[in-house]
Design brief:
alpha+beta; Vanillyl-alcohol Oxidase, Chain A, domain 3; 20 strands; Uridine Diphospho-n-acetylenolpyruvylglucosamine Reductase, domain 3; eight-stranded antiparallel beta sheet; single chain; about 450 residues; 2 domains
């Protein structure tokens, strides 16, 4: 057996077999063989999920050898890509073709299929989760056959868009794209209440924006993103090389190294955690960066952490953040990692946490080597009380019975799942809990 673990090291698995298909036919063979043995099948992307969506004791499929852009149609503004391709690789190919994804998150190490399947999102109320940019899928279902899915397929398409890998193994994705564009990122420190009281102004003034609140302080780091003419002066070279690219990389390295040191100190000596967070907030400096959209959206993540994140009705975000702040302050929780807040427009995928409503996402982190008993649970309870829906790729304790009432199209998704995977070939223990629960349904 070979051991698998996620990026944070918090989720592990020792499957009986890890398969590395190189063609779609290989994927079909793996699925068919597992079904004949009565095994379960799960697919691993880049390991950037914090919830145990991947582990299985049976067959684990890695698509790291099934990568690459299959086709780019610049005139139509579309590209088809193999599921194991990372967003970084895809973005590089798209830029060369004069295209880009309309919106992205801040991690580009994820695989395309993994990012879509877990409801990965960026920020900006004009945009849904990333899977809203998909217009076609090829998926190997439990019978070993390839199913082509487009928006004309209604319930099936909306279910495949955010599927947690519970409907089959996605082999290819076709994306609807926009002409390549550059962004100007500005970051600055702003008092937290000034941010919470002026959300609408930020929404109206910027294409995308987000903020991070540093616990034990009044400081929020606000990041705004706005389009600029292509080729504008940039601190980051287009291919992340050359003098500007080296300087940007050095700057990121220094920031990550300093933050790692603060986190390690706070882990060993919890009493210093407040001071570490205050030091980080006090040393924030205004920064402007201009470059290709995919480069500006992406951030290096060298300090490992664990995370829970919930999507709430957008109007509820200020109240939820204030309640989390009150809990941290009143109980003196020695947390250092900032609280991250982003916004996603209401969208259509059935299991998107932003389905049908403009949403504010609140993400809570801890250093991966630091246990804060009760911290995630208390924050979850606060976010849950605001009709929160957990991000599928982040840590949470919800079950199917908790979640069914939060998703208007829950039953439609379950119907599609019953049709495509009647025997639960693509379920693991975690998906049994969050999709099936104690209410029955297929195993």
């Amino acid at each position: 057996m070979t051991r698998w673990q996620n990026w944070a090291g918090s989720v592990t698995a020792t499957p009986d077999a890890i398969r590395l298909p190189e063609t779609e036919a290989d994927i079909e063979d793996v699925v068919t063989a597992a079904a004949e043995r009565g095994d379960t099948v799960r697919v691993a992307g880049s390991g950037h999920s914090f919830s145990p969506v991947v582990p299985t004791d049976d067959t684990l499929v890695s698509l790291e050898r099934y990568t690459g852009v299959v086709d780019v149609d610049a005139d139509a503004g579309r590209a088809t890509v193999r599921a194991g391709t990372t967003l970084e690789e895809l973005n590089r190919e798209l830029r060369a073709a004069g295209l880009a994804m309309a919106n992205l998150g801040d991690v580009d190490a994820q695989t395309v299929a993994g990012a879509l399947a877990t409801g990965t999102h960026g920020t900006g109320l004009d945009f849904g989760v990333l899977s809203t940019q998909a217009v076609g899928f090829r998926i190997v279902t439990a019978d070993g056959e390839v199913l082509e899915v487009t928006p004309e397929d209604g319930d099936v398409f909306r279910s495949v868009q955010v599927s947690l890998g519970a409907l089959g193994v996605v082999s290819e994705v076709t994306l609807d794209l926009v002409p390549a564009y550059d962004l100007c990122l500005r970051r600055r420190a702003v008092p937290l209440e000034a941010v919470l009281e002026n959300l609408d102004r930020f929404h109206e003034a910027h294409r995308n924006w987000e903020f991070f609140w540093f616990p034990h302080t009044d400081t929020a780091l606000v990041k705004t993103f706005d389009t600029v003419p292509a080729g504008a002066d940039s601190r980051r070279d287009r291919d992340r090389s050359g003098e500007d690219g080296v300087l940007a990389g050095l700057d990121a390295w220094v920031e990550n190294t300093a933050w790692e040191a603060i986190c390690r100190l706070g882990t060993r000596y919890p009493a210093t955690a407040k001071h570490g967070a205050r030091l980080a907030a006090a040393t924030l400096s205004d920064k402007t960066e201009v470059g290709p959209s995919a480069d500006v959206f992406a951030n290096p993540r060298n300090v490992r952490f664990d995370e829970t994140e919930y999507g709430l009705p957008a109007a509820d975000l200020p109240a939820a953040v204030r309640e989390i702040r009150r809990y941290i302050d009143e109980e003196g929780v020695p947390v250092q990692f900032p609280i991250e807040c982003r916004f996603v427009g209401g969208d259509d995928p059935y299991l998107s946490p932003a389905h049908g409503r403009d949403s504010g996402f609140v993400a809570v982190h801890t250093y991966h080597q630091k246990s804060l008993p009760g911290y995630f649970e208390r924050c979850e309870a606060i976010l849950d009380a605001h009709d929160g829906r957990p991000h599928w790729g982040k840590m949470h304790e919800k079950t199917a019975s908790d979640l069914a009432g939060r998703y208007p199209e829950w039953d439609a998704f379950q119907s599609v799942r019953a049709d495509l995977d009647p025997d639960g070939l693509f379920l693991n223990d975690h998906l049994q809990r969050v999709l099936v629960g104690d209410s029955g349904g297929q195993a």
